[in-house]
From TrEMBL, chain A:
Compartments reported by the entry: Cell membrane
A Pfam family of this chain: BPD_transp_1
Membrane topology note: Multi-pass membrane protein
Top-level taxon of origin: Bacteria
Residue span(s) of domain ABC transmembrane type-1: 103-318
GO cellular component terms listed in the entry, alphabetical order: plasma membrane
GO biological process, one term: transmembrane transport
Transmembrane segments: 42-60, 107-128, 148-174, 194-216, 236-255, 299-321
UniProt KW keywords: Cell membrane, Membrane, Transmembrane, Transmembrane helix, Transport
Family: Belongs to the binding-protein-dependent transport system permease family.
Protein name, as recorded: Sugar ABC transporter permease
Coiled-coil zones: none
Biological classification of the source: Bacteria, Pseudomonadati, Pseudomonadota, Alphaproteobacteria, Rhodobacterales
InterPro entries associated with the record: MetI-like, MetI-like_sf, UgpAE/MalFG_permease
Biological source species: Mangrovicoccus algicola
TrEMBL record, chain B:
GO biological process: carbohydrate transport
Coiled coil: none
Species assigned in the record: Mangrovicoccus algicola
Protein name: sn-glycerol-3-phosphate ABC transporter ATP-binding protein UgpC
Molecular functions per Gene Ontology: ABC-type transporter activity; ATP binding; ATP hydrolysis activity
Keyword Transport among record annotations: yes
UniProt keyword list: ATP-binding, Nucleotide-binding, Transport
Family: Belongs to the ABC transporter superfamily.
Domain of life: Bacteria
NCBIfam families noted in UniProt: PRK11650.1
Domain called ABC transporter: residue spans: 4-234
TrEMBL record, chain C:
Key word Oxidoreductase present: no
Domain of life: Bacteria
Keywords: Signal
Annotated TM spans: none
Name used for this protein in its record: Extracellular solute-binding protein
Entry keyword Signal: yes
Leader peptide range in chain numbering: 1-22
C-alpha cells in the first residue's frame, strides 16, 4: 500500500522534488532487484534454458526460411542466394481453381470435424465418469483408446475394408435392408463423412483423456452435496461436471480452432482417389501433389505461410471472444 | 417428531467393519455433536445418515420413518461440508438456490428464500460474487445458506469449521450456535475438536474405533467421564493421569505412587493392592505455598503464561503433570518444587486394567451449574 | 581397420600433393586416391554393406585394388529413407562430396548441374572414358534423354538391361474348364471375361469371380491399348508419349475417349474388379489365393511364381502369360517395357578436384571386368566364368535369400552408374517367366519409350504452373467416367475445352520445344 502524504502549502514543491528524486533512485534499484532475483533463483533459469533453446532452434530459426515464400527458391543457391519475386507464388495459388477448391474443402472438413468431432471426446469422458464398475470402465477406455495407437496406414486399411462393396461390413449390413452395395470410397459425397468419422473413431478416445483428467479434478463433495440437494445424475452432469470442465473445454476449443486448417494429411492421402478429389482434396494434399512434380518448396512455403497466418488470426479471434464471453482464455 | 434414531448401525467395507453397531437417539431440535479422533467412524456415521454411504446393518429412522434404502434427496436432510462444496462457476445466490432449482421450485419463491437466507447470514452484499472472490468465513456461510434455504428436518455438519483459522472458527462457532437457537432444527455435527463439541452441543457423543464411548451433556462428560479415553479426550489441557496402588489408611483408602500418597474418597469398589489410575484435571489442582498433609509435590519444568492464567508443566517423577493456575505474582522458578492439593470429590478414579471409571463416584456437584449453562 | 584407415589417409595426402596419373588403363593412380561419395538408395543409406559404412563392400575392395580409387562414405540423410529429403539435405549443406550417387538423382542433378553444382561430363567422357563413350555413341538417344536443358550430361545413369516388364496373364485352367481358347483379340477377350463372370470357372457355385483385376489400379488403363489408345509413354503412369515426332498426352487424344468408354462399359458389366481403386497392393495375392481372379497385367518375374505357390491350394492352378490381344485396330502391343535408363546413377560435384580420375573411375565400371564386377560381384566368390559366360555359384542360386538381395550386400547391383547385364537376372528367373519371355519374343510387341525431356527454366515454369492441376483434372474425370458417374462421350467436348483452358496447349508446347532441342 502506498501512503499518500497530505500535502500542504509551500511544502508541495519540495515534496514533488523529493518524490522525483526517489523515483530516480528507484530506477537503478529495480535493475539491481532483477539482478538479485537472478542470483537467488538462478537454478530455475538454468532449468528454463533447454526449453528456450528448443524454441529458438526449432520454432524461431525456421521462420527465417519462410522468406522463400517470396522467392524463386533453389536449394543449391540457398535462401539468401535466391532472387525475390514478391507475391508471385500467392498469385499462382489463388489463380488456381484446384487450390481454391482445396481451401474450401479444408475449411468445410475442419468445420465438420469441429462440429462433430469436438463434442465426442467430452461426451466419452462424461460417460466414462458415469461408469461405476472399475473393470468395465477400464476395458471400455482401453477399447476406445486403442485406435490412437494404430498407424494410419492400418486404420486406412480397416476403413477401406469396412466400406468395401463386396466384403465390407457396412455394405453387408446395408444388404440386409435390401440396399445395393455402394462403392463408398469413390463417391465424393461420402468422402467427408467417412474421413471425419474415421478421425473421430481414431482420436476421440485419446482426446477424452484430458477431459477425464479435468473431471478427476472436480471435488467429489460437489457431487455429494448435489446428491443431498436432490440432483439426479443427469442434473449433476449438466450442473456440475460440464460447468466444472468448461475452462478445459474452451482451451481445447481455442487450440483446435488454431489447428483448423491442419487436416490429417496422411489419412487423406491414404483414403482419397482422383474420383473423390472434388470433396477430399485439401490444401496439404494439393501442395503434396504440386510439390512432388518438381520440388516446388517455395510454393509450398507460400501455402504453408497462408495456413499459418489464417490459423493465427483464428486463434487470436477465438481467444478474444472467449475472454470476453467466458472469462477463460489461453493467455 | 423429526428426531433421528440410529439402531445398531453398522458399516463394513467388505470384511472390514469400521462402525460397530451405533445406538443413538437424537431428539427433535437437539444439537448433537459426534466427536472423536480421526478414523473413529464419526464422519462415516454422519454420511450414512445423509445417505452418502450405504448402511451395512441396523436401522436408521428419521422422523419415525425407516431410511436405510431411501435416496438422500428424499430424507429431507441438508449437509454442510468441510470444504464447503460450493460450485465455482455459480455466484453466491445461485449456489444458495441450487437445491431449490434442482427441485424446480418457483422463481419467486427461490428469490425470496435466497434473499431471506442471505439476510440471516449477512451475505446480502455478496450475492453476486463467485466463491473464488469470498473469504473462508464467507464461503462457510454460503455453504450453510445452501443448507438452511431448503428448511430440512435435519442438518448435518461434517467438520464445517476445520478449514478456518482459529479466530474465524470461534466466531463461526458462535454463529452456528445462534443459528441453531433461532431455527431450532435437529442438528448432527461432526468434529474432532473437543472445544467445538463442548461449546456447541446439547449432547456430545464421544466415539472411538467405531464405537460410542459415552453420550451426555458436555458437563456430564467433563465431570464424569466413563473411562480414561473420554477423560483424556475432553478438556484442554487434558486430564492428568497417574497410575497408583491402593493401600488401606487410617481415615480410608490411600493411593501411593512415586513415593507420594494421596487420600482417596471411600468407595466400595476400592480394594487394597488394587492398581488404579487417578485422573486430576489441571483446573482442579490448587497450588499451596508449602507441603501439607494430603498434598502432592511436583517439579516445575516450564511455565506457559496465558494472561490471567498460567499452565505450569511439571514432572511427577518421570511423568508430566500439568496444573492450570491463576497467574501468580512471583514467577515460579524452573526446577523448583511445588505442592498442590485436590478436593477428593474432584478426583476421578479408573480401574488401571479396564480403564473404566470406578463405580460410585459422583463428582463435582458444586460445579454442576456449568452443565446448565452449557445446556442453554 | 583403424590402421588401414590412417594409412589410407596418409596415402591420400601424398596423392593430393603429387597425383601420379597413369596415362591409360588401370589402375588409374599408382597411389590410392580417396574420393568421398554420397550414396543414398532404398536398400542402403550410405556406401557400405547394408548402409553400415564401417563395412566395406567386397566389390569396393576389388575396385580399390583395380583402380586405386578409394570411395569414402559421405552420405547425407542417413536417418531417412526418403531419397528426396536426403538430396535436399545434401544440397542445403553447400559443400558436396566428390561423387553424388543414389536413386532418383536425375532431376536434382539436371536442375542444379547447370546452376553449377555438378560438373558437365561430355568433354570428360570424350577425353578420358572410352568405354562410356562407346556405349553412348551406340545409343545417341539415351545420351539425349539424360541431358539437362543446356544439352550437357551431368550424370552416368544406371542402365537396365532386358526388355520385358509386365505381361498379360490368364487362368489357363479356367479356359480349359470352360472349353475356351486363349483370347487373341479384344473381342475374344471380352467373351472370355464374360464367361469367367458367368460360368463359375472356380466351381464354388457362386458368381464371385473377378474377371480382370490389377494390383495397381492404373493397370486398368492398360486396357486402353486394346482400343488403340495409350495409357502412358513410359514406365511411369500417365506419362506423355511421342507420336510421329511430336509429344502428346495419351489422355487428350480422340482414341482415349473411345477407350475409356469401353473400359467404363466393361466396368459396368462387372468384367473389371469393382474394387479396383481401393483393393491395393495385396489384391493379386488375395484374388489368386482365393481362386477368384481371372486376368491381369503384371510383372513377369513376380506373377509367374503363383503357379508353384498355389499348386497345393488350388488343384490345377495355371496362371500363365498370353500374348497381348490384338486391338480393335488390329495392333498387338505390349505397352509396358523396361526403361533403358534410370534416373539413378552417379555424378561429379563441383567441388571434386579430380574430375579426370573420377570419370576414368566411372569408366572402369563400363569395362568388361568392371561390368561383371558391378553385376555379379567378386569373381571366384559369387560367380565363375564358365564357357565365357559369368555364372553364379550354386551356393548363390540355391540360397533362400533372393539373388538380388545377396548382390546388394556384396556391393553389386547397387545404384552406381553401371550397365546392367541381363544374364544376371536370367539365371534366377523362374521357368514360367522364361517361357513367357520367350513367347513375347516371338513377336515384335514393344513400342518406343518416351525417355523424358530436360526443360529449360521457362519451360519448367510453364510445366510447374499448369501440369499438376491438369493431371489432377484428367485423373478425376478418368475415374469418374470409369465408375460411371459421367459419360465420356457426352462430356468429351467440355473435357477437351477445359484442358485447353487449363493450359494443356502451353504445356505441350513447352514439352515439344524441349523435345526438339534435345532429340533433333
Amino acid at each position: 500500500m502506498t501512503h499518500v502524504p497530505e500535502i500542504q502549502g509551500n511544502r508541495t514543491e519540495e515534496l514533488v522534488i523529493e518524490a522525483r528524486e526517489a523515483q530516480r533512485e528507484r530506477a537503478p534499484s529495480r535493475v539491481a532487484r532483477v539482478g538479485d532475483h537472478l542470483k537467488r533463483e538462478w537454478q530455475l533459469y538454468v532449468m528454463l534454458i533447454p526449453t528456450v533453446i528448443w524454441l529458438l532452434v526449432f520454432l524461431y530459426k525456421p521462420m527465417y526460411g519462410l522468406q522463400i515464400a517470396f522467392k524463386d527458391y533453389s536449394i543449391f543457391r540457398g535462401i539468401s542466394g535466391s532472387p525475390w519475386i514478391g507475391l508471385e507464388h500467392f498469385q499462382t495459388l489463388f489463380n488456381n481453381d484446384q487450390f481454391l477448391r482445396a481451401l474450401k474443402n479444408t475449411v468445410i472438413m475442419s468445420a465438420y470435424g469441429l462440429l462433430f468431432g469436438f463434442p465426442v471426446p467430452i461426451l466419452l469422458a462424461v460417460m466414462f465418469n458415469e461408469i461405476l464398475s472399475p473393470w468395465y470402465r477400464k476395458t471400455a477406455q482401453t477399447i476406445v483408446y486403442l485406435p490412437h495407437f494404430i498407424s494410419s496406414v492400418i486404420i486406412a486399411g480397416i476403413v477401406i475394408t469396412a466400406f468395401s462393396p463386396s466384403a465390407g461390413i457396412v455394405n453387408t449390413f446395408l444388404g440386409w435392408f435390401g440396399v445395393d452395395p455402394i462403392y463408398f470410397l469413390t463417391k465424393p459425397e461420402w468422402f467427408r463423412p467417412i474421413f471425419i468419422g474415421t478421425g473421430i473413431w481414431q482420436e476421440a478416445g485419446f482426446q477424452s483423456i484430458v477431459y477425464l483428467a479435468a473431471i478427476a479434478g472436480i471435488s467429489p463433495t460437489l457431487y455429494e452435496s448435489a446428491v443431498v440437494d436432490g440432483a439426479s445424475r443427469w442434473q449433476m452432469i449438466w450442473k456440475i461436471t460440464i460447468p466444472s470442465i468448461l475452462p478445459t473445454i474452451i482451451i481445447m476449443l481455442i487450440i483446435r480452432i488454431g489447428n483448423i486448417l491442419e487436416i490429417s494429411f496422411e489419412m487423406i492421402i491414404l483414403l482419397y482417389q482422383p474420383a473423390t478429389y472434388a470433396t477430399g482434396d485439401v490444401v496439404n494434399t494439393f501442395i503434396y501433389r504440386q510439390g512432388i512434380q518438381g520440388g516446388q518448396y517455395d510454393l509450398a512455403a507460400a501455402a504453408g505461410l497462408f495456413n499459418a497466418v489464417m490459423a493465427f488470426v483464428l486463434v487470436i479471434s477465438a481467444n478474444t471472444l472467449s475472454k470476453r464471453f467466458s472469462r477463460t482464455s489461453l493467455w | 417428531m423429526s428426531g433421528v434414531r440410529l439402531d445398531g448401525i453398522v458399516k463394513a467395507y467388505g470384511a472390514v467393519q469400521v462402525v460397530h453397531g451405533i445406538e443413538l437417539d437424537v431428539q427433535e431440535g437437539e444439537f448433537v455433536v459426534l466427536v472423536g479422533p480421526s478414523g473413529c467412524g464419526k464422519s462415516t456415521t454422519l454420511r450414512m445418515i445423509a445417505g452418502l454411504e450405504e448402511i451395512s446393518g441396523g436401522t436408521l429412522t428419521i422422523d419415525g420413518r425407516k431410511m436405510n434404502r431411501v435416496a438422500p434427496k428424499d430424507r429431507d436432510v441438508a449437509m454442510v461440508f468441510q470444504n464447503y462444496a460450493l460450485y465455482p462457476h455459480l455466484n453466491v445466490a445461485e449456489n444458495i438456490a441450487f437445491g431449490l432449482r434442482i427441485r424446480k421450485e418457483k422463481k419467486e419463491l427461490i428469490k425470496s428464500s435466497v434473499d431471506e437466507v442471505g439476510g440471516i447470514l449477512g451475505l446480502t452484499d455478496y450475492l453476486e460474487r463467485r466463491p473464488a472472490d469470498l473469504s473462508g468465513g464467507q464461503r462457510q456461510r454460503v455453504a450453510m445458506g445452501r443448507a438452511i434455504v431448503r428448511r430440512p428436518k435435519v442438518f448435518l455438519f461434517d467438520e464445517p469449521l476445520s478449514n478456518l483459522d482459529a479466530k474465524l472458527r470461534t466466531q463461526m462457532r458462535a454463529e452456528i450456535k445462534r443459528l441453531h437457537n433461532r431455527l431450532g432444527a435437529t442438528s448432527i455435527y461432526v468434529t474432532h475438536d473437543q472445544v467445538e463439541a463442548m461449546t456447541l452441543a446439547d449432547r456430545i457423543v464421544v466415539m472411538h474405533d467405531g464405537r460410542i464411548e459415552q453420550v451426555g451433556t458436555p458437563m456430564e462428560l467433563f465431570l464424569n467421564p466413563v473411562n480414561t479415553f473420554v477423560a483424556g479426550f475432553l478438556g484442554s489441557p487434558p486430564m492428568n493421569m497417574q497410575r497408583a496402588t491402593v493401600v488401606a489408611g487410617e481415615g480410608g483408602p490411600i493411593a501411593e505412587f512415586k513415593g507420594q500418597s494421596l487420600p482417596l474418597p471411600a468407595l466400595e469398589a476400592l480394594r487394597p493392592g488394587q492398581e488404579i489410575v487417578i485422573g486430576i484435571r489441571p483446573e482442579y489442582a490448587e497450588l499451596r505455598t508449602a507441603p501439607e498433609p494430603g498434598t502432592m509435590q511436583v517439579d516445575v519444568d516450564l511455565v506457559e503464561t496465558l494472561g490471567s492464567e498460567a499452565l505450569i508443566h511439571c514432572m511427577l517423577g518421570d511423568d508430566p503433570f500439568v496444573i492450570r493456575a491463576e497467574t501468580i505474582g512471583q514467577p515460579l522458578k524452573v526446577g523448583s518444587r511445588v505442592s498442590f492439593a485436590v478436593r477428593p470429590d474432584l478426583l476421578r478414579l479408573f480401574d488401571a486394567r479396564s480403564g473404566r471409571a470406578l463405580p460410585g463416584q459422583r463428582a463435582g456437584e458444586a460445579l454442576s451449574f456449568g452443565a446448565e449453562a452449557a445446556a442453554q | 581397420m583403424r590402421i588401414r584407415t590412417s594409412l589410407a589417409a596418409a596415402l591420400a595426402c601424398t596423392a593430393l600433393t603429387s597425383p601420379t596419373l597413369a596415362d591409360d588403363g588401370f589402375p588409374i593412380v599408382d597411389e590410392p586416391l580417396e574420393l568421398t561419395i554420397h550414396m543414398h538408395w532404398p536398400r542402403a543409406q550410405g556406401y557400405g554393406v547394408g548402409g553400415d559404412t564401417s563395412k566395406i563392400y567386397p566389390v569396393e575392395e576389388v575396385a580399390r585394388e583395380k583402380t586405386g580409387i578409394w570411395l569414402i562414405d559421405a552420405t547425407a540423410g542417413k536417418n531417412t529413407k526418403d531419397n528426396n529429403e536426403a538430396m535436399n539435405l545434401l544440397l542445403a549443406q553447400g559443400k558436396l562430396p566428390d561423387i553424388v550417387g543414389g536413386n532418383r538423382i536425375q532431376q536434382p542433378v539436371n536442375q542444379y548441374g547447370p546452376e553449377g553444382a555438378f560438373q558437365p561430363l561430355d568433354d570428360l567422357i570424350e577425353e578420358h572414358a572410352p568405354h562410356i563413350k562407346a556405349f553412348f555413341d551406340e545409343r545417341p538417344e539415351l545420351r539425349q534423354a539424360i541431358s539437362a536443358h543446356d544439352g550437357k550430361m551431368y550424370y552416368i545413369p544406371y542402365l537396365p538391361d532386358g526388355k520385358y516388364g509386365r505381361a498379360w496373364y490368364i487362368r489357363r485352367d479356367w479356359l480349359d474348364k470352360l472349353g475356351l481358347e486363349t483370347p487373341d483379340n479384344v473381342d475374344e477377350l471380352y467373351e472370355v471375361l464374360k464367361a469367367f463372370r458367368d460360368q463359375d470357372p472356380n466351381g464354388n457355385g457362386q458368381k464371385d469371380e473377378v474377371p480382370y483385376f490389377a494390383r495397381d489400379w492404373e493397370e486398368v488403363l492398360r486396357l486402353l491399348t486394346l482400343w488403340d489408345a495409350r495409357s502412358s509413354g513410359s514406365d511411369t503412369y500417365h506419362d506423355f508419349y511421342v507420336d510421329d515426332g511430336e509429344v502428346v498426352h495419351p489422355y487428350a487424344v480422340e482414341a482415349y475417349r473411345d477407350g475409356i468408354a469401353n473400359i467404363a462399359k466393361w466396368y459396368a458389366e462387372g468384367l473389371i474388379d469393382p474394387e479396383i481403386f481401393t483393393r491395393g497392393s495385396s489384391s493379386r495375392e488375395y484374388l489368386l489365393g482365393e481362386n477368384l481372379g481371372g486376368v491381369t497385367h503384371d510383372w513377369f518375374a513376380s506373377t509367374s511364381g503363383y503357379n508353384q505357390a498355389l499348386a497345393d491350394k488350388i488343384p490345377g492352378f495355371d496362371f500363365s502369360p498370353f500374348l497381348p490381344p490384338e486391338s480393335a485396330g488390329g495392333v498387338r502391343m505390349e505397352e509396358h517395357r523396361r526403361i533403358p535408363i534410370k534416373p539413378d546413377g552417379w555424378a561429379i560435384s563441383f567441388s571434386n578436384e579430380h574430375p579426370e580420375e573420377t570419370i576414368r573411375y566411372f569408366d572402369y565400371w563400363f569395362t568388361e571386368e568392371g561390368r561383371n564386377l558391378s553385376n555379379f560381384g567378386v569373381e571366384g566368390k559369387t560367380w565363375n566364368m564358365v564357357d565365357g559366360e559369368p555364372v553364379f555359384t550354386d551356393e548363390v542360386l540355391s540360397s533362400s535369400t533372393p539373388v538380388n538381395s545377396q548382390m546388394y550386400l556384396e556391393g553389386a547391383q547397387i545404384y552406381r552408374g553401371y550397365w546392367m547385364d541381363y544374364r544376371y537376372e536370367w539365371q534366377w528367373t523362374s521357368e514360367g517367366a522364361r517361357e513367357g519371355i520367350k513367347l513375347y519374343d516371338t513377336e515384335d510387341l514393344l513400342v518406343d519409350q518416351f525417355l523424358g525431356v530436360a526443360l529449360n527454366k521457362d519451360e519448367q515454369e510453364v510445366y510447374d504452373r499448369f501440369w499438376p492441376s491438369i493431371q489432377t483434372y484428367m485423373l478425376e474425370r478418368q475415374q469418374a467416367w470409369i465408375l460411371g458417374s459421367g459419360d465420356v462421350t457426352a462430356d468429351w467436348d467440355s473435357y477437351v475445352s477445359t484442358l485447353d483452358r487449363m493450359g494443356l496447349p502451353q504445356v505441350l508446347e513447352a514439352m515439344n520445344s524441349a523435345y526438339q532441342r534435345q532429340y533433333n
